[in-house]
Amino acid sequence: MFDELTKKLEYTFQKLKGHGKINEKNISEALREVRRTLLEADVNYKVAKDFIEAVKNKSLGKEVLRSITPAQQVIKIFNEELVDLLGGTVSRLKDSSVPPTKIMVAGLQGSGKTTFCAKLSLFLSKKGKKSLLASSDIYRPAAKNQLEVLGNSINTFVYPYDKEGAVEIAVGAVEEAKNRGYDVVILDTAGRLHINSEMMDEVVEIKNAINPNEILFVADGMTGQDAVNSAKAFLERLDFTGIVLTKLDGDAKGGAALSIRAVTGRPIKFISIGEKVDAIDIFHPDRMASRILGMGDIITLVEKAEEAVDREKALKLEKKLRKEEFTLEDFYDQLQQIKRMGPIENLIEMIPGVRGLKFKDIRENGDELKKTEAIINSMTPEERRKPKIINGSRRLRIARGSGTSVQDVNRLLKQFSQMQKMIKGLSRFGFGKVFKQFGF
Are 276 and 332 within one domain? Predict the structure, then answer.
């Protein structure tokens, strides 16, 4: 989402680094460009103005002007102010002292509310909390069915109802959660294509009826300032406690993400990147600021790797590597673990120093992984374990089955053969030393 913004900021800061000395003139010129860049990214006018003013005041301090590396000092100040703009610290969900914790989810239609409810349920289940899902959307015919399908996909109970009103459904869901001993009840409310008094009256009635511990406003990150305007309207009536930004994997300019917290005064609690049910992250202002400035986000990358890696499989893999028994089946397992970490373009964005990599190269790398997976899927179990038995006729069958060419199959087998030779070399060094470095 922030690609264009990041590119322009990097260019501006690079020019600033080119000055031998920093003074009010070149700082003002640089910040003028930054301000224009923020406005082009659809950041709220007042937010951009106040932000630039704060950076400018700190950048003109004596300790910066006398610094050995004044340009780096200005960038450091910019980063600190950006972190502050985004909320400063992580904002966690509030727990109820008496279960269940009640979480109400609101927002406009199409913002991703229903999908987020399922994502949040799965996220909480990984933290050891059992949640009940409920939909009080009695207007959209597919709303309840959508939530049931999502709930089934993550083995989560969805509160059933027949012909009740939205408030009655909400109250009934909370009672059901109490009776069944659930830790959390997540309530999906009805969305509309635009703000109207009828919808607002209904969500306020639901709020008053169940007294939720958290009210999360879901904002579509693709809609720019419209998301900010909607948030202000919801805040006035609903006084929500936190914000969720969805669709951050899109090509929007990112202005909503940078404006919404400053305009509403409410913290961003979660971000959603992608359609998969596990595509949800806690919002870390410092990590987001680092990514916007092109510095990567290695901490989130490591956390995703820890979640994706099956330690039991890793230990089995180590034993196989020791015995030089690494097969295409093992290679396939590694591909699946990489896939669980998320789309490759999102992972690459988190690595410091690779912002210059063209999207075309990133996309091609992702396509190659898909092609490799298709080829291995088209092999028999015996062929995966013993690639040497794959002769000409087998290669042709595998190519046809995977929708690739014989040349693609040959290339994979050659790469795998080279990988096996490398593993033999590593085995002499000692895999135990390598795995211990990663905590296995």
Answer: no
Q: Of 52, 85, 118, which residue is a domain's last?
A: 85
The SS3 call for residue 439 is: coil
pLDDT at residue 440 greater than cutoff 50: no
Under 8 Å CB-to-CB from 366, ≥6 apart: which residues? 343, 344, 345
Phi (first) and psi of residue 137, to 5 degrees: -85, 100
Domain region containing 57: 3-85
C-alpha span between 256 and 75 (Å, rounded): 22
Q: Which residue has the higher pLDDT, 424 or 158?
A: 158
* 371 and 335 within one domain: yes
Instruction: Give 8-37 pLDDT, tens digit per residue.
Output: 777 777 777 666 566 778 788 888 888 888
3-class SS of residue 235: helix
Cα–Cα distances in Å, from 198 out to 140, 190, 202, 335, 408?
15, 11, 6, 49, 59
Q: Report pTM.
A: 0.68
Q: Rounded to an integer, what distance in angstroms lies between the CA atom of residue 386 and that of residue 95?
A: 53
Sequence-ordered list of residues with C-beta below 8 angstroms from that of 191, at least 6 positions apart, any chain: 106, 107, 108, 109, 110, 111, 113, 137, 140, 199
Q: Indicate whether 322 pLDDT > 90.
A: no
Bridge partners, 9 (sequence order): none
Residues 259 and 401 placed together within one structural domain of the fold: no
Instruction: State the total domains in the chain.
Output: 3
pLDDT band at 144 (very low <50, low <70, confident <90, very high): confident
